[in-house]
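Page 42, continued from yesterday. The earlier attempt failed because a stray header line got pasted into the input along with the sequence. Redoing it now with the clean sequence only.
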Amino acid sequence: MQNTATTAIDIKKPDLLHSLMEPRAILEVAALSVYWQFSKPSDIGDSRPVMVIPGFMTSDSATFLLRRYLNQKGFETIGWQQGRNLGLHEEVLDTLIETVEESYKKYGRKISLIGWSLGGIYARALAHKIPDKIAKVITLGTPFGLETKMDPEDIAVSDNVMRLYRKLNPTQDSDPLSQGEAFWKVPPPVPSTAIYSKSDGVAHWYYCQDEIEGEHNQNIAIPASHMGFTHNPLAYPLIVDLLGKPRKSIRHNWLGRKLYQTG
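This time it went through. Structure tokens are written below.
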């Protein structure tokens, strides 16, 4: 895992080979089952609340394993509780704001957010809307770098996914959130980490990271399929490490190069 510098590139779709390799998510599930055998419960989470927001066309059931793992590590996880994530809509964001505010009152602590794919746009949007209630944000393969007003054929997401999105969201052209300013492109005013994969077969990796890293935001690349982010055995310990360290610490590889920081 390492940070990758951003360089200007032309908008393009994910590599066709990577898209064809998306079924490797099944192998990631198998690898996770092996990893799980050696993972022990702990209290590293200190009962800190974490909301996990699912990706496009998925629901809380798709993030069940991740939430179960985090629970075993001592976190208190919260689902997004809105059925399938069918698109970017203002009313959905408003409901999420209410859920976060209720959770903040319940736990008496700021909420950490994990957003997978489209769910990550909601996570970053929440951090901008109610930063006083949010502890940190982690996105998994989220193309938050895309503009809202773009021709579908130009959006750097696989064609099949875009066709389905357009079909399921016939009124998106009039939705204030999906047609407004893409304010989530700006790093949130809270600590944030964009986890992405250069072999992502659904969303082009370039748009799944912040263009500039700063004191409170960073990018981390891992080998993963887009569909496998929520059950990737490399993502799980990384997420726990990012969520579970209240103080800032920096991880280096054996050459002394910075990998990422927590806190």
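Notes: Residues 4 and 155 are 22 Å apart (CA to CA).
Reminder to self: strip header lines before submitting.
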